[in-house]
């Protein structure tokens, strides 16, 4: 597991280290080869127990955050797997609210075939009235409705390949 510590912790930890131009790295004061100039530049020794306690607190905070975030891992994976579908749904919702009643028209290839549909008389009246008011054929209303229904309930790929 990777932990990120604050700058204060790093600063306290590095106080016991000195840059060595020969080694091109930081070296602990105890490993210095008696070079007095570099040891004079070194920061005073800090209390190791305080530093360990602060590091322990920081690690505990990081673990707590990681545990809380782990609860959301399945949700994030689901969102990532279904991102395309979710974006389409959100776009369709936004379009539907602001479309001002535009009826989609689809150019469906193939020959026409008669289908009889039985429905409640009040629903049939609504379709007839809607057709007259919007100057749209009932065939276009039902084609659009069936295409949208099939897309919504599992036949998106089949409908899209049909309309290509």
From TrEMBL:
Domain of life assignment: Bacteria
Protein name: Uncharacterized protein
Organism: Halanaerobium congolense
